[in-house]
């Protein structure tokens, strides 16, 4: 009897232990557990009740349906919604829990009456929380600013620029958009302007003198023998050429003929002409002798001063350029496969000033300056094309507002003393002047460039 009682007692204990284990296992693997806060369940409205929830790898549809039933919500869940949810909430409002579950799974909802419809979000993953803001830019360049702001964007952020209105369009999380807008406001300030004034002074002085001579003679006569018989005749004159043996005139090799018609033996004139120098000629003619002599001289003295005063207004850190001059057209001929074509090319000869200023915090101005002057020299030509004389200066400097500084000076001096003449004969004392020409040249040129930068005040 006692043995049966012991056996029955052990069976009862075994069944109790089994029941406890099954319930513990079921509790541990229950996918959804929702409990109301017991202390506040009777004190708050349903929307303000706090819930503690445990989701372990639960189907999202079952979770949403359970939450709706707990709060008596009418819910329709799209058939396109699928997935699992695992999370733990402690004392949260029911709608906060629903919205968080929807957001993390890229879902959304809309309400019509008392029905809540849950569907997939129309935005890409992670884009539902993004906001879009238009940020106008008044003074700066929106494109330049946008390049500096890209590093502030989140992985889903995007920034574009409307060039017509100079406006930035930012799409990102709200905090980032606010930070970007604040930074743009601090950067978008009125850019100061700088008036750049340059004075380019060029002084010239020159002296030149030339002394020249031209003369020619011929002598014709008969040769008489000792017996008095005429044997022939002769002609003594400067060298020349004839096209035909029957020609009665000839072309002197020196390229000149005197007033009396005598070809020059020596043709070394000074550079005289209208408005330059003078000349005097003597001709002596007899039956057998002809003599032409011309003396020419030119002397020139001159002084000149050229002042160029270009001015330009530019923004801080922006390059500005001003130029004035002329374009010289040149005709260029080219032959290809026997066909000749004409092309017009342009040579620029101008005065230009290129400046990039930067205003420092203490109102000093850092400048990159390039000044250039190019002008044609019509006294030196190649195929009727003048050479271009260029003078320029390129430098970086720092200067106080309103001060004037000399950025460069070029001084050139040319002295020449030249003689052109007939070899050997031009070296004979005194008589050598009949066989040579003398030229003296002394020229000086000086170029100075002055720069005065001034910060333009607002309203000035």
Tell me about this structure.
The chain is α+β, with helices and mostly antiparallel strands and 460 residues long. Helices cover 15% and strands 54% of the residues. The N and C termini lie far apart (121 Å).
Q: Indicate the mean pLDDT.
A: 80
Broad structural category: alpha+beta
Strand content: over 45%
Give me the number of helical elements: 5
The unreliable regions are 20-30
Q: From N to C, what is the helix and strand string? A: HEEHEEHEEEHEEHEEEEEEEEEEEEEE
What proportion of the residues is helical, as a percent range? 10-25%
Main β-sheet: number of strands, strand sense, barrel status? 8 strands, antiparallel
Shape: rod-shaped
Question: What's the total number of strands?
Answer: 23
Distance between the termini: 121 Å
Q: Indicate the radius of gyration in whole angstroms.
A: 53 Å
